[in-house]
Amino acid sequence: MNAEYTSVDITEKTLCYEIYKLLIYLGLSMNYVGFRLCGYAIYLVVQEPERILSICKRLYPDVAQRYDTTWRNVERNIRAAADRVWKTNPTLLSRVAGYPLDKKPTAAQFISILSFYFLSMYPSSSTQ
């Protein structure tokens, strides 16, 4: 079975709420700078899954532009958020990933895991 993931068919407000809710369940509090950056990065990937293929050239710069920072700061803050989640709730992160995680995911892997979770939860109605 060749599954193709396209953008999610869900309202923007609902998607943002669900992303933030999951980040909080994973142990990331809203006072982390990485919380907003992760949330927006996940949102962008869910809206356009191809972004995950050029994370440093496309995704991080888009997030950086939104929050008036550099792509390197975006990557560092997402990495710190992934580290926090890994220390706080690795079991839930593994369940969200759908497979056991042996080590802390990189920033890109973290965004990929969480984005795929939402893509699989809310498949687009155009996907057959």
Provide structural commentary.
With 128 residues, the protein is mostly helical. The chain has one domain (22-121): Orthogonal Bundle (Arc Repressor Mutant, subunit A). Helices cover 64% and strands 0% of the residues. Helix 2 packs across helix 3 (55-66).
Name its key features:
6 helices; Arc Repressor Mutant, subunit A; globular; 128 residues; mainly alpha; 0% strand
Question: Helix coverage percent of residues?
Answer: 55-70%
Question: What is the H/E order?
Answer: HHHHHH
Query: Total helix count?
Result: 6
CATH class category label: Mainly Alpha
| Residues in β-strands, percent | under 5%
Distance between the termini: 11 Å
Mean pLDDT: 88
Unreliable segments of 5+ consecutive residues: 1-8
Give the helix/strand layout.
Elements: H1 12-25, H2 33-47, H3 55-66, H4 71-88, H5 90-97, H6 107-121
What would a concise description of this structure say?
With 128 residues, the protein is mainly α. It contains six helices and no strands.
